Amino acid sequence: MPIAVTQVELNGETVTDFDPPHVTFEDQEQIISEGLKQRGWTVTFLESDKATRRRLFKISKGSASLSVITYIFPNLAWSSGGRSHEEKRIQLSRPYAEHAEDFTRDKNKEPRCALMGIYRRNGLILFCAWDPAAYAEHSNPSSCYVRTDAMASAAQTGFGQGIDTKKRFVCCFTPDLLAYYLENLAFLHDNKVVDDDLEMPMLEEGVTSSLDEKLTVAVNVNKVNERLPRNRIFYGAPGTGKSHNLDLDLKSNFPDEALFERTTFYPDYTSGTFLGSYRPTPIYRGGVGAFLEADRKTPAPSLEPMIDYRFVPGPFLRLLAKALNNPEHNFCLVIEEINRANASAVFADAFQMLDRDEDGNGKFAVTLAPESMDFLASMGHFGPVRIPANLYVWASMNSADQGVTPLDSAFKRRWSMEYVGIDEGEDVVEDWELELAFLPAPIKWNKFRQAINNHLVSQGITEDRLLGPFFMTERELSWPRAFEDKLLLYLRDDVVKNAPSKLFTGGSATFGALVKRYRQKENIFVPEISFSDG
Questions:
Q1: H-only helix segments in 260-369
Q2: Cα–Cα distances in Å, from 120 out to 30, 54, 75, 77?
Q3: CA angle 422, 449, 457 (to 5 degrees)
Q4: Half-sphere exposure of 502 (CA within 13 A, CB side)
Q5: Where are any strands of DSSP class E within 464-533?
Q6: Is the dihedral of CA 511, 515, 518, 520 positive or negative?
Q7: What residue spans of 433-527 are helical by DSSP H?
Q8: What are the Cα distances from residue 498, in Å, to 256, 487, 494?
Q9: Is the pLDDT of residue 179 over 50?
Q10: 240 touches 421 (CB < 8 A)
Q11: Three-state DSSP state, 154
C-alpha cells in the first residue's frame, strides 16, 4: 500500500504526500530539450535505448558544444524498507556490464556520462544527479540516495547538493541548469558549491553502503520473527488469501525489494529456469558507419548485435548467492503455485538442501551442476554448498487447480505446511456485495458463498473446491459479467463438471444453457440453496 512521505513543493517547501508518478522514458527528451532551451542551448539526440536507459545527445550554444551520455532511471521515489521518509532514490536495476564503459569515462572528456533521475510534481521538475564512477561494479539491483532537503534547496534557488552513501556530492537542479551541470559535473561531484548544511542519507548500524563486493545489499539489516519457518507452504481452497497471508509476513519481515525475489511455477518450469542455465545472450560491438532503422530514415544506434552463450542464474541461485554474501541480512524466495510444476524435478540437486538443522542451516552440503558451482565460485563460494539460515523459501499452492502436480511425501516432509481455512479473512470482505439477476436486491458476498459452500459440502464436494473470501475481488463483484465469466464458469466446469445437477437445476445443463437462463432472471441454483435471511 502506498505510504505518504516527504515531498517537495514548487516553492521549495516540503509536505507529506504520496510519491508522484515516475517520469517515463518518452517524456525525458522533452524535459531535457525545454530545460536547455531556457538558457539558449539546442540539443540533437543521436541514440536512445529504452531498455538500458542510455541516451546519447549533443548540445550546443554559439561556438560551444558538448557530447553527453545520460542514464536517467525513471524510478526516483522513496525506497521503503525502513529508510527515512526524507529520502528518495533511483535503483540501478540493469546489469552493470551494460554501462560499465560509460560509468568509468573521464568526466573532463567527451562524451561525458551523467547518472540521473527526474522528479516531477505539481509543476516542479528537478534533476537529481550522482557520480557514475562512484557506482562502478555495482550489484544488481543497487540504490542511489538523495535527501529531500537537497531537492528543496534546488526548488528554491535552482541548485542544491547532498551527500550520498558513497560520500560523494549529489547534485539537484532545475532543468534550466542542465547545461551548467553537464559542463561542470566533474567539479560539482567533488566540491561543495552551496551553503546548505549537507547530511548523508540514513546510515544506521547494520546498514552497508559498500558496492565494492558483488551482490552487496545496501538496505537495513532485517530481523525475521524467530517463530516463522524457513521452508513454508501456504495451502487451501481458491480465494482463501494464501498469497495475501504470505505477503503480509513478507512485508513485515523482508521490507525491501532487495531482500526477496518472487517466481511462479508452471507446467513447463524447469530446473534450468529455477537454478540457472546457459542461454543465448545478445552482446553488441561498435559498428562502422551510420545505421538506420527498418524504415531507412530513422537513425539507429551504431551497434552490431552478436549472440553469445552465457550462464544466466535462476531465482534460487541468485538469492542463494546473495544470502551467502550478506549473512547479516535475511532473504526470502517466494514461489507461487509451487505444485503447478513437478517441484521435485525443478529443485533437482537443490532438493536435499531443503533439509535444515535446528538453527535453520542446511544439514547437507550439496554439489550442484557444474555450471551452477562455477557461478557460485565466481561469487567467492567454492566446493559443496549448504543453504544458509538467512535464506527463507516460502510458497503457496492450490490443490484445486486442474494443472497441479501432486507433491511427493519426501518433498512435503521438508516443508511446514500451513493450512488457510475456507473462511479465514472473511471479515475483510464483510461489506462486499453481489448483484444476482434473479434477486431483487444485492446480497452480501459472504452470505452467497457460504450458502453455496454449505450445499456443496452436503453433496460431498471437497473443501479445496469451495469458494474462499477472496475468490472474487470487490471490483469483480461490481461487474455483472464477472458472475458469468468467472464465478459461474468455475462452479460449472471445475466444481460440478461431472454432476452439474448437484448445484444447478435443469439436469445436465451446459454452461451456455445456464447463462441463457440466468440472463432471463431465472434462479439457476437448486432449491435446497436459500439466499434469504430465513
A1: 271-274, 315-325, 343-347
A2: 13, 20, 11, 11
A3: 65
A4: 20
A5: none
A6: negative
A7: 445-458, 474-477, 480-482, 489-490, 511-519
A8: 47, 17, 9
A9: yes
A10: yes
A11: helix
Q: Tell me, rounded to whole angstroms, the distance of Cα 24 from its chain centroid.
A: 17
The pLDDT of residue 346 is: 93
H/E element, 444: strand 443-444
**Residues of the chain above pLDDT 70, percent:** 92
- Cβ neighbour number for residue 266 with a 10 Å cutoff: 12
Q: What angle do CA 116, 118, 121 make, to 5 degrees?
A: 160
C-alpha grid cell for residue 462?
471437497
d(CA 484, CA 379): 53
Give the separation between CA 368 and CA 73, rounded to whole angstroms: 36
Q: Rounded to an integer, what distance in angstroms lies between the CA atom of residue 426 and that of residue 419? A: 15
Burial 111-122 (b: 16+ CB within 10 A, else e): bbbbbbbbbebe
CA distance 312 to 298: 33
Decide: 12 and 196 in contact? Cβ < 8 Å. no
Pairing state between β 433-434 and 443-444: antiparallel
209 — pLDDT class (breaks 50, 70, 90): very low
- Cell 555450471 identifies what position? 371
| Cell numbers at 470, concatenated | 477472496
Pairing of strands 112-121, 124-130: antiparallel
CB distance 426 to 368 below 8 Å: no
204: its cell numbers: 544506521
Q: Do 395 and 264 contact (CB within 8 A), yes or no?
A: no
Looking up cell 456485495 gives 433
CA angle 529/525/461 to nearest 5° reads 70
Q: What is the pLDDT of residue 168?
A: 82
Query: Which of 174-178, 210-214, 379-383, 486-490 has the highest mean predicted lDDT (pLDDT)?
Result: 174-178
Residue 82: what pLDDT? 63
Nearest to 97 by CA among 227, 222, 284, 269: 284
Please state, in angstroms and rounded to a whole number, the distance separating the CA atoms of residues 472 and 11.
45
Check: CB of residue 46 under 8 Å from CB of residue 57.
yes
Q: Any residues with CB less than 8 A from the CB of 217 and at least 6 apart, and which?
A: 139, 208, 258, 259, 322, 326, 329
User: What does the DSSP 8-state code read for residue 421?
Assistant: -
The DSSP bridge pattern shows strands 112-121 and 64-72 to be parallel
3 state SS of 380: coil
Which residues neighbour 511 within 8 Å (Cβ) at sequence distance 6 or greater?
488, 489, 492, 493
In whole angstroms, give the CA distance from residue 239 to residue 476: 13
